[in-house]
Amino acid sequence: MNAPFHSPSPQAPATAVPALDIRHVSKAFVVDGKAVEVLADISLSVEAGSFVSIVGASGCGKSTLLRLILGLDLDYAGEIHLDGRPVEGPGPERSIVFQEHRLLPWLTVEGNVGAALLHSGLDAAARRRSVAEHLELVGLEAFAKAYPAQLSGGMAQRVAIARALANRPRFLLLDEPLGALDALTRLRLQGELKRIVAYEGATAVLVTHDVDEAVFLGHRIVVLHPRPGRIAAVLEVPEEARADRSSPAFVALRDRVLELLGVSLGEGRAR
Amino acid sequence: MSLAETLDKPAFDQSARAGTATASAARRRAGRRGPAGPTPLGSVLLGLSFPFALLVAWWWAARLGLVPEQILPAPATIYETLSSLIADGSLTTHLEVSTHRVLVGFGLGALFGLVFGAAAGLSPTVRAFLYPPVQAVARVNVLAWMPLLTLFMGIDEPLKYVVIGWSAAIPIILGTARGIENVSPAFRELGRVLHFNTRDTLRLVVLPGAVPSIFAGLREGLANAWQTLVLAELFASFEGLGYLMTWGRQLFQLDLVIIAMIVVALAGLAMDLGLRWVERRAQPWKRGTRDVH
User: Fold this and answer.
1) Interface pTM (ipTM) of the complex?
2) Where is the composition biased (Low complexity) (chain B) (predicted)?
3) In chain A, how long is the greatest CA-to-CA distance?
4) Global pTM exceeds 0.80
5) Cα-flanking dihedrals φ and ψ of residue A98, to 5°?
6) Which range of residues forms the domain containing residue B230?
7) Do both B213 and B127 map to the same domain?
């Protein structure tokens, strides 16, 4: 497989055109006849090949932001551009992994991954190859003929990751993709996700409320404050912190993010 | 539908088997039998135990002369009558005539029900147009229409087909429409993300998602078809199991009535089992779910 092997540095050249450009995005829902603002003036640009983690408490509009980037909801103020073009709906260059695996129960593992390639323009042989390659990438080539009900939660989520990547998207959106998994599986999949995204060279936006995950996976961390969701801080993740979960840099950054999220560390340590 | 629901019990078993790997691992820990319920053989035996007990009670009651022979004939009498009905071929004829009526009527009802149910499920406009009359008609027993229908259609076979088809179509329309309406919005959203066209969405999201509800409608429709068959044959027929009942009642030969009842029940059960077999074949993802890791 000759996928471009990106190893993007957090300090991308300043001249690069942002792959994803979010400008002054605000979004409100109407609840009981009243407008409730969920996102307020979000501006963020992400350069190609980098991995951005968005952290925030529940209800800060994280998932809504991903839906807007995906083009599932076009009713908002502000602009979202991909490579300089405004988002007008879902497109094959973007894909998403949801919190639940959302595999179609009636399709086998390979059928589910293949469903992402129906309109890829590839012929049947090339589609089969891509499915096989991506199942191998997530280590599930032996389960190609299994149905989702036969898989564990972690395996199902790996299939969902393979499905999201099968069409070689340039943008990978991750909506708390590991949130429903047990702690051990989550740690293991965080490592896999980092390897896979780097291998595919996709630009990734991860939404999570797990601060460790945000630090471990992201080149940058965007901290959101809730009601309405707004950017509190954007932090660069030093390479040292991404590489080692027990490094002082990792711990320092995690504590900084937790503090920004309003978690009192003193109490946490006392327990 | 009471018949369909009573016969539904083993479906339990099936959904448990289709559970996640975690569930099956838990069952494995709990041993082969598990807390989910009796084994397949066990549930068959359990299902047969009540009719068997009833048979024994009946046999004893007849033997002790607790009930007059004219009112409740002994099982032995039933057996003799059954043998002679089989021997002279009349039971086979009645069964064939009735089965033919059910199959044609149910076939018409299923065709009509699936088409209109699908249209109602897919299009809110069709639903708004179709639902009020269907819901209203569903509340009037089809027998109430018989006098009116007879004026239009006469009293021959077409009347029976229409009445049986009518009673079958109503649950099929509702089951199909409901199945399609209730397809998970999360899967529809997934379809948008994966750029499914209408055909993909129907084939990969809507139809497989609606299968269980469609089959629930078909099975209820089939149960309705058998019930209506008997009533239609009581009303206007010279052949068939319903006619056998009327005839037996008029001659005060209750053994004939009981035999007809048993044959109707068994024929309905057999066809329901057939539908369930088709349902399982139509959903391979629920079949043979086993641990593969």
Assistant:
1) 0.82
2) 15-25
3) 60
4) no
5) -85, 170
6) 73-286
7) yes
